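Lay summary. Proteins are chains of building blocks that fold into shapes, and those shapes determine what they do. In this project we predict the shape from the chain. Here is one chain we studied, written as its sequence of building blocks.
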Amino acid sequence: MLPDQAVLVLQAHFIRGSATPLRGRWLRKFRPEGKLNPGFQPPSLDDAIRQVGVLPNGKIVIGGYNQTFGLAGQSRRQLARLFPDGSLDLGFNAGLTAEQVDALAISPDGRHVLVGLFILSTRTTPAQFPLRLLRADSPLLSRVERMADGSLRSEVHAAPGTRVVLERSPDLRHWVTVEEVTLPPGGVLPRTHPPATGADGEFLRARPVP
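And here is the predicted shape, written in a compact code that computers can read:
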């Protein structure tokens, strides 16, 4: 259910007796009184869509397998954020490629999305099932992973040339600037941060410079 009491439904179409019975999935939005909202126009979805989550502001996070949401040149792979009317929000970019979205959960404050991924095995590596905590509320998307030595590796995704501030906090209340930097060509800024010094660990965030 959305903040305006509208209801989202992920509809599947099956054909009995077929070797591949699942023929498609559609994301529908119904008004509070139960009528279909024809103005809700999400990107085309196929049988690869798997997960749907709703943010407190009414935006919608969707994820799936081998899925490209949107049109060529304006698309997102595997994981996307939609505006309440269903249109693609290009301010959100997880930078996923081969990873497949198996599960997702939205934090109560809407700031983060926890994504369960599935990475297929290859001849040299087994299948992997990583969890990633991503920012869900910002036009910048910070990906943070803890390394074996305790350091943190982050990635910020935004349009090339975007000026951003990277910050750390021990408690989500007091933030210290790490650096101010411009996103390079490609729109991905990787960084490695020293291990946390506090007993409760550290938090990272990236925000655009006004």
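What the prediction tells us: The chain has no helices and 14 strands.
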